[in-house]
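From the shared-data thread, chain only:
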Amino acid sequence: MSDANDIQERALLERLSDASELLKQTFLRQYRRYRGGDDGLWDWSEIGPPESDDLIDVSLIDRLACEEQGRAELAKLVVIKLNGGLGTTMDLSHAKSLVPVRDGRSFLQLVVEQIGAVRQRYACDLPLLLMNSYRTRDDCLPVVQTLIQPGGLPHDFLQHKVPRIDTATAGPLSTGDPSEWWAPPGHGDIYLALFAGGLLRRLVDHGYRWAFVSNVDNLAATVDPALLGLLAQRQVEFAMEVTDKTAADIKGGTLVRYRGRLNLLERAQVAPQHIADFQDISKLRVFNTNSLWWRLDALLERLERGALDLPLIVNPKRVAGCEVVQLETAMGAAIGSFPRAAGLRVPRSRFAPVKGTEDLLVVRSDAYQLDEAVGLRPSDPAAPLPVVRLDARYYRGLADLEMRVPHSLGMAGCRSLTIEGDVRFGKNVVLSGDVSLRGGDQHAPLHIANGTRLG
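Structure, as tokens:
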């Protein structure tokens, strides 16, 4: 190692002086890959589509038999929600999970209701754990502390934080606000966060056998005993819910065969000359919904042999006027670490993420409804959901959206909505078919009156 590399490594480890030895070694291994020129790109010649046994189509299972077995396994299940995100895509500086979604209830409040619905229907003490970040924990814990956890389990565990790397020096970022020197290492950190703090061992010792893990903003990802029973029947250790790609999903990570194993391939791992191949939905037909099922004892046994060697994702950012990179990993990439792994091909109705205001506009509308499990489902499963394109100058932020669309829109019969300029909606506005609206600037917006029907 050169003297310069050694100096930067020491500076990074000094920045991590309060971290566990496991985190230090994991980060150092990723940093050395980065310094060694690992750009995270995979050799396309070694990538192929998943094999027939890799994907289980849940529409073809014996649902009654699977659900019966799944009910017997519910007492061994824990639900984990990824709750580390700030709603930065909506110009927020607090947890996205606190954004109101339906009738003033936030993502997180609805997740609590989902857990309550399972507990009541199946007479079980289903635990809910949040993986919080250092930026979301204080605001979100009061919401979930209304749930009494069985066995004295905590309500959350904390995602790690690691140094951002200044690309000019290859050392830790050291200018600007010290709070910006840190970044979360991607949701692939969930394994180390659970293991290093002893929570994974505690769950296994308390008799928990399964975990269902999903994004907190995907309110369609509810506990389904039939899926749990299916995994128990087939002795699957690690399962990823996938659903069929459409033209809107071509950037989503997909399951592939890579070097003889089932693996998750992310767009960031594809060389530019192969992006078209990655986005070809006739070849790579499904994408990762980021909803996972784990066998906790198998995960513990694997981690006791050493940290998971997840593929590196190099995420460039500009912070405090500097070009930096964040070294990250993806949670779903762990599928390549388990021999008894599978993709669960689920219906689109289990996937309703909210990445920005365009998604939020739709999930707040009557194009979606809450079912008996408090899951967010399309009101008409046979109809495509509206495709929404909003002028980012006026609708990027949550405050921008709520000023211009203060009431839920009627969109159950809407195929698409395109807005250019500043358009503001009154109450009880109904959209159908394809709607395109053009407003002026903020000084001369287009006002849509109460009760208007468009399309």
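The chain has a mean pLDDT of 95.
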